[in-house]
UniProtKB/TrEMBL annotation, chain A:
Domain CheC-like protein as annotated: residue spans: 10-45, 110-145
InterPro entries (UniProt xref): CheC, CheC-like_sf, CheZ_family_phosphatases
Keyword Thylakoid on entry: no
Superkingdom to which the source organism belongs: Bacteria
Keyword line: Chemotaxis, Hydrolase
Protein name: Chemotaxis protein CheC -- inhibitor of MCP methylation
Alphabetical list of Gene3D superfamilies matching this protein: CheC-like
GO molecular function (one): hydrolase activity
Organism per entry: Bacillus thermotolerans (Quasibacillus thermotolerans)
GO biological process, one term: chemotaxis
Length: 207, 158
């Protein structure tokens, strides 16, 4: 876990800034899509055990909707946009309109969610690429509805080859509900593979 | 009793042992029906040679995890020739076409676990592996039943 032991506060600040810029652009894109105000919380850079990671977003066994992709290019890693089932339903209603949908409405809902994830994660990653001036190509995002732990653990596999901890940039999107209280809209989890950190820090002159 | 990711645990009746949110990881239970002790390991990678640095967590890999579990059971009085196994997990949650060494990791985890068990001549009594769904498993050392819960495919007992 050499790469983790070498992390200094300037590195953590850089990773936080990546979350800030990436999710900030994604929040703006979501705002435009839904035509309502979407905000974000200050990003968390987590340097934690795998067990701590899978307990985020409601816990390992919680059924969630995830739009996931792999990053390839100058840096590799995994990215997950995670929604609660209820939030996913709210989104599809807003995107498709309420009312009766035809018999293949399930596949329509899925493709609406998939497209939403495409747009948001693509926005996040192009902001990351602009900021670092690195080439980052996203894979085709995949929609999976399953236990959070079973999904996010895929993003921990590369880190597990280097030790028993991982580094994750977590950003939470929020919306104001009817009582003007801040409500979680969705989570971005960015898990660069261990070799990516050095590339990112080098690109920003902070190795 | 809860077993974490890349973790190993032992249990005796009336307690049960569980691990949650298995995706590509594999949960393996090994038990001796004549000795009131069973063990579970939550395996993440098929081979300790995939480790980039000297890795001391034996539970993480199929090759080191299975032999560690066998040794722990033997230390508690289990006999190697009586050991039996049940296993679940090893799903392929995503179909990304990746160039990385961890491509099809779920399938490779399952194959590696079976190879290790075969090396110890431990029979696999039941399994629920592969597919594309997450699993939470719980083993009862009193009945030797492995309970499997999924969110898309219901629950089962093997």
């Amino acid at each position: 876990m050499d790469y983790i032991n070498k992390l200094h506060s300037i590195h953590l600040d850089i990773l936080k800034e990546i979350g800030n810029i990436g999710a900030g652009h994604a929040a703006a894109a979501l705002s435009a899509l839904l035509n309502r105000a979407v905000d974000m919380k200050v990003p968390n850079v987590r340097v934690s055990s795998f067990d701590d990671m899978v307990e985020l977003a409601g816990g390992s066994e919680r059924e969630v909707v995830s739009i996931s992709l792999r990053m390839e290019g100058d840096i590799t890693g995994s990215m997950f946009f995670v929604l609660s089932l209820q939030q996913a339903e709210t989104f599809t209603e807003k995107l498709l309109g309420q009312g009766k949908l035809s018999s293949d409405s399930e596949s329509l809902r899925r493709s609406a969610l998939q497209e939403l994830g495409n747009i948001l994660s693509g926005t996040y990653l192009s902001a990351l690429a602009d900021f670092t001036r690195l080439q980052v190509q996203p894979s085709v995002p995949e929609l999976v509805i399953d236990m959070f732990g079973a999904i996010i653990s895929y993003g921990l596999i590369e880190a597990s080859r280097y030790g028993d901890k991982a580094i994750m940039i977590e950003t939470i999107l929020t919306e104001l509900d009817e009582e003007e209280a801040s409500e979680t809209t969705g989570y971005f989890f960015l898990l660069p593979d261990p070799p990516a950190f050095r590339t990112i820090f080098q690109a920003l002159g902070a190795e | 009793m809860k077993v974490g990711i890349a973790d190993i645990g032992m249990v005796s009746p009336p307690d049960v042992i569980r691990t949650s949110g298995l995706g590509s990881c594999v949960g393996v239970v090994i038990y001796d029906e004549r000795v009131p002790v069973a063990g579970m390991v939550h395996i993440m990678l098929p081979d300790s040679r995939l480790a980039r640095e000297g890795d001391t967590n034996k539970a993480k890999f199929a090759d080191t995890g299975i032999s560690e579990l066998v040794h722990l059971l033997q230390a508690r009085g289990a006999m190697l020739y009586r050991l039996k196994a049940k296993m679940a997990g090893g799903a392929q949650m995503f179909s990304f076409q990746s160039q990385s060494d961890t491509f099809q990791i779920g399938l490779r985890n399952v194959q590696a676990v079976k190879r290790e068990l075969k090396g110890f001549r431990i029979p696999v009594m039941a399994e629920d592996t592969g597919g594309s769904n997450g699993r939470t498993i719980e083993f009862d050392p009193a009945t030797f039943e492995l309970h499997i819960r999924t969110v898309n495919k219901g629950s089962s007992v093997i």
